[in-house]
Design a protein that fits this description.
Layout lengths: L2 H20 L5 E5 L3 H8 L3 H22 L3 E8 L7 H21 L2 E6 L7 H12 L7 E9 L1 H18 L4 H7 L2 H5 L12 E4 L18 E4 L9 H13 L7
Parallel strand pairs: 1-2, 1-5, 2-4, 3-4, 5-6
Helix pairs in contact: 1-9, 2-3, 3-4, 4-5
Length: 254
Amino acid sequence: MGISSVLYPLYERRLTRAIRKGGSVPRHVGVILDGNRRWARQAGASTATGHQKGADKITEVLEWSAESGVEVVTLWMLSTDNLSRDPGELTALLDIICSAVETLAADGRWRLQHVGDASLLPPDAAARIARAVASTASAGYLHVNVAVGYGGRHEIADAVRAYLRSEAASGASLEQVASSLSVETIAEHLYTKGQPDPDLVIRTSGEQRLGGFLLWQSAHSEFYFCEAYWPDFRHVDFLRALRDYAQRERRLGR
């Protein structure tokens, strides 16, 4: 038996104790699933293999989240910027994403919600995601937002448009619309309306930026950047993120 196989469980337990001692677990965790392509290059594998390895990691992370008491997880699986990738890579990536969402739906434990602009996706991909999401309406173990075709600026623009359309439909004048526009009215039209904002945002692969992820909702989020590529993200990496969160003093802008 190797040293690592002995020490790893001990370290996991140590991290778990530290999290419990901190007494604070995030209700909503956002995850930027980054590093699939770099993992593939490092492994000498195809890009599609890297994306598939990343998709295979998702259920594990949801299980860790549920075990820790997290209520909502948002997974950024495809950005609006990703839609401009090479058509061949994008087609393969969308098929992997759709299959991953269908697998999550078939699991029966996760209540899925699509966050993003379905109109930006190929019709067949949008339909596959919509069917998978609809099939989980009665699930209640953990709420999982699958962010596919998602961009933070795009979401805010969508929210403003939705608000303007609702006000126009009610017969409000431009002056009335302008005077009633507020932080609260925009928040009511976001993709994640009714959900708690993310307390913790995790990004893998060592990149230290949001890249447009939940721009509005993450105003008071804590951020954790992990060096591991997404396919290599381990339970101890997840626990380290929770421990780091539990040890921080959250000021929430005050």
